[in-house]
Design a protein that fits this description.
The complex is a heterodimer of chains A (about 400) and B (about 290). Chain A has about 400 residues and is α+β, with helices and mostly antiparallel strands. Chain A has helices spanning about 5-15, 30-40, 65-75, 130-140, 155-165, 170-190, 225-230, 240-245, 265-275, 295-305, 325-335, 355-360, 375-385, and strands spanning about 20-25, 40-45, 60, 80, 90, 95-100, 105-115, 120-125, 145, 190-205, 210, 215, 250-255, 260, 285, 310-320, 345-350, 370. Helix content of chain B is about 35%, strand content about 20%. In chain B, the strands form two sheets. Chain B has a seven-stranded mixed sheet with strand order 8-7-10-9-11-12-13, sandwiched between helices. Chain B has a six-stranded parallel sheet with strand order 3-2-1-4-5-6, with helices on both faces. Chain B is globular, with a radius of gyration of 18 Å. Classes of the chains: A alpha+beta (about 400), B alpha/beta (about 290).
Chain lengths: ~400, ~290
């Protein structure tokens, strides 16, 4: 799960990571009020779940409330396009109005999981303000890493190594040690999956502060963080994906025209791949999961068909724990409820597949039955081209 | 021949009285797996529907029944603890089926595991099977046949697909293992590849990977280094997955251009492994590789 920068900064503040004074604003009036409260120069920052906002024109400096009024009016409601949003961009519905900082140096700090070591790693770099992937690819020696011992905090020597690697001096060192540890404490306490501060800055006044806050949370751990649920901004997520999640379906919208319903994530990816291999494009990823029943399948069907690009549906079920006959029951009931105007290709194997195929045969509905994975993909792609499969 | 599980396996089921645990215990017993004990804290002293004795703790179960392997059907919030309990009871093998364990819990599990003699398969996996001898987990037993192909996979149903293709072509399996779809897992492709390479009963190996991480690349590098001669056939799922998105499995995410299907396929091909373009070609490719 992702959250907005202003929400991330509130978490930072809670754990003692210094952030500039700032307030969220949903309207121009709120933005102006925030600017008056802060006083002096402020930054108007678009709040969307994507990076690269500055380059896209979503972050602007303002002299005072008058200019904030103008800029907030421009940014609120705009379709902000960045390298992470896709060409359509994202509509800006929230702003962060923040006290402008006098930046002396821009640094980077981040925490991720190192999968190969099975440990979290804190990474810092003097190359703040740049894309860290680029720094990692071009000048990997400029990224300093410390792996965190499971169940522990960063050890004093690790903090010192990181702080001195950032070139901090004098009183900044103490601030740096405190801030880096506070970042880890926030990461651990909130079950983050990723945290980035880019940039972490040293101001002309010599203070170390987080000018940015990117926090992602481990979806598997959300059950123990009810307070994070409140931070969820559903308008930033695809409405179909939100709808699917209500039924424990794992749906991701893609751009193609072959709708897919599959049990199991690996097979679902494999099915998308084989559609492409046969010259088609998958319209979605949909894993009906290990506990699929008639109701979940019926909802999955409805969500797939709600996508106007879908010209054929491929249902690929390999019964294991999920019994194929239950899925067949769901498909039949869904197709009786929802008017299906596109061809439906069904391939079933595994537990109770024979009964499932019999049920589909016996129903008055029209299915294109496929006999193997390859056959299914071919028939689905043919069906989108209007070919009789 | 086989690896890790077989006629010698004496299984304890952790979470035996839950709905998943009780259902799959019956299935495993029916397949012929020797299930010797169950564990549900608070229900020690009872027996389950199959007459299997239930204990409060894994240590008790081991002491009383000589269990050497555990399978875990405990809910995600408690599964990390259940794995560590099995490891501390010094079982040889722990198979965790549970999906959705928080990553931070698995970081702790991994550190406990690294200092122990136990091996973990999973979590978030279908389990491990030596056809005709021992089935541990949730896979449909009837699609498997005893034979000489070792199967290692990050997926569940895609593994069934591959096994189904193999069995239909008369190619049985020595042992089939789902290693799990999470970012932190107990046993990697490489760990199990080494065991299959040494196993006299395994003549070919199927490796089913997916986007995310670098476990496939590490296996490829090992094959190049050691010059292992057993034929390996691979498939990587997720070529069409959009970057940055979690494709069902928490581990299936491409970040910063790393962990892509293409980079994995290239690494495997460079190691002389036959990489299938289509998941429908896995069985045929093994048949060809075995000549």
């Amino acid at each position: 799960m992702k959250i907005h920068e202003y929400q991330g900064k509130a978490i930072f503040a809670e754990f003692g990571v210094p952030v500039p004074e700032g307030y969220p604003a949903f309207t121009v009036d709120e933005a102006v009020a925030a600017a008056k409260k802060i006083g002096g120069k402020v930054v108007v920052k678009a709040q969307i779940h994507a990076g690269g906002r500055g380059k896209g024109g979503g972050v602007k400096l303002a002299d005072g409330p008058e200019q904030v009024k103008e800029l907030a009016g421009q940014i609120l409601g705009m379709q902000l396009v960045t390298h992470q949003t896709g060409p359509a961009g994202k509509e800006v519905q929230r702003l962060l109005i923040e006290k402008a900082s006098n930046i002396d140096r821009e640094l980077y700090a981040g925490i991720v999981l190192d999968r190969s070591r099975g440990r979290y790693v804190m990474m810092v770099s003097t190359e703040g303000g740049m894309e860290i992937e680029k720094v990692a690819a071009e000048t990997p020696e400029k990224i300093i890493k410390e792996w965190i011992l499971p169940g522990s905090e960063l050890l004093p020597y690790q903090l010192r190594r990181l702080a001195y690697a950032l070139g901090l001096e004098g009183d900044q060192v103490k601030q740096g040690l405190r801030t880096l540890q506070a970042l880890w404490q926030a990461f651990a306490a909130k079950d983050c999956s990723l945290m980035e501060v880019n940039p972490l800055v040293v101001t002309s006044e010599g203070d170390v502060i987080a000018l940015d806050a990117k926090l992602n949370f481990d979806d598997n751990a959300l059950f123990r963080h009810p307070e994070l649920q409140e931070l969820r901004d559903l308008s930033e997520e695809d409405p179909h994906e939100v709808e699917a999640a209500k039924f424990n379906l794992n749906y991701i919208k893609l751009d193609g025209n072959v709708g897919c319903m599959v049990n199991g994530a690996g097979l679902a990816m494999g099915t998308m791949d084989i559609i492409k291999l046969h010259g088609g494009e998958p319209a979605n990823f949909l894993d009906v999961g290990g506990v699929a029943n008639a109701e979940t399948v019926s909802n999955g069907f409805r969500i797939i068909l709600d996508d106007p690009n879908v010209q054929a549906v491929l249902i690929n079920i390999f019964g294991g724990i999920v019994r194929a006959d239950r899925i067949a029951e769901g498909i039949i009931s869904a197709m009786q409820q929802v008017e299906v105007k596109v061809p439906v290709v069904v391939r079933m194997e595994g537990t109770n597949a024979e009964q499932a195929r019999q049920m589909l045969d016996d129903s008055p509905l029209k299915f294109i039955v496929a006999h193997s994975l390859g056959d299914a993909a071919q028939k689905a792609v043919m069906a989108t081209k209007g070919g009789a499969a | 021949m086989s690896i890790l599980v077989g006629d010698h396996t004496r299984l304890v089921v952790q979470g035996i009285t839950g709905s998943e645990g009780s259902y799959h215990t019956a299935q495993m017993v029916e397949y012929g797996t020797r299930v010797v004990a169950g564990v549900t804290p608070g229900k020690g002293g009872q027996t389950d529907a199959n007459g299997i004795p239930i204990f409060h703790t894994v240590a008790q179960a081991k002491a009383e029944t000589g269990a050497n392997t555990s399978v875990i059907f405990v809910p995600p919030a408690f599964a990390g603890d259940a794995i560590m309990e099995a490891v501390s009871a010094e079982l040889d093998l722990v198979v965790c089926i549970t999906e959705g364990i928080p990553t931070a819990d698995m970081v702790m599990v991994k550190s406990v595991l690294d200092g122990s003699g136990a091996r973990l398969i999973g979590p978030n996996c279908p389990g491990i099977i030596t056809p005709g001898q021992c089935k541990i987990g949730i896979m449909p037993g009837f699609i498997h046949q005893p034979g000489k192909v070792g199967v290692i996979s990050r997926s569940g149903t895609l593994t069934y697909e591959a096994v189904f293709q193999l069995s239909n072509l008369g190619l049985g399996q020595s042992t089939g293992i789902g290693i799990g779809g999470d970012p932190i897992i107990g046993s990697t492709f490489l760990d199990l590849l080494i065991l299959f390479a040494e196993d006299e009963g395994t003549e070919a190996i199927v490796l089913i990977g997916e986007i995310g991480g670098s476990a496939e690349e590490e296996a490829a590098a090992w094959i190049t280094e050691t010059g292992m001669t057993k034929p390996v056939v691979a498939f990587i799922a997720g070529r069409t997955a959009p970057p940055g998105r979690r494709m069902g499995h928490a581990g299936a995410i491409v970040s910063g251009g790393q962990g892509t299907a293409e980079s994995k396929m290239e690494a495997l091909q460079a190691a002389g492994i036959h990489v299938c373009q289509s998941p429908a070609d896995i069985g045929e490719s093994v048949l060809k590789a075995l000549g």
